[in-house]
Write a structure and sequence with these properties.
It is built from 2 helices and 9 strands. By secondary structure, the protein is an alpha+beta fold.
Length: 131
């Protein structure tokens, strides 16, 4: 059986991105591998072992075109309103809180935050299928 290991995104500024993911989601650097043309930085929490891999291509200064194929990362939190308020206080870019339903059946309660490179992260209230 396969186990999910990581998701990778390309970023322009390592320090700015590490700072965002540390302050927003409590991710810390668990490994950093420097190559001649690029650097890989692995971020994780102690909770589950899943990692976010940041790829920094040396010399890249222009933002990446995220295109129409990228979806989003998602995280689950215990108190959505508290996290929303914290994100806003931190000055992070956040969308409105959404109560997502299928007809009258609740599916999820969430908001999206945007990282410094424009990637969307869905922040979901813990409950139901989102544990």
């Amino acid at each position: 059986m396969a186990k999910l290991a990581h998701s990778m995104i390309r970023v322009i500024d390592e320090d700015r991105s590490v700072d965002f993911y540390r302050r927003a989601f409590g991710l810390e650097i668990v490994n950093r591998i420097e190559f001649a043309d690029f650097t890989l930085v692995y971020l994780a929490q102690e909770l589950d072992g899943f990692e976010l891999e940041l790829t920094i291509n040396h010399g890249r200064t222009e933002p990446y075109n995220l295109g129409d194929g990228y979806g989003h990362l998602a995280v689950v939190v215990d108190n959505l309103q508290a996290e929303y308020d914290r994100f806003a206080a931190e000055g992070f870019t956040v969308g409105k809180i959404v109560d997502f339903k299928n007809g009258n059946v609740p599916v999820a309660r969430f908001f999206f935050a945007t990282d410094p490179d424009g990637y969307k992260i869905e922040v979901i209230q813990k409950g139901g299928r989102f544990q």
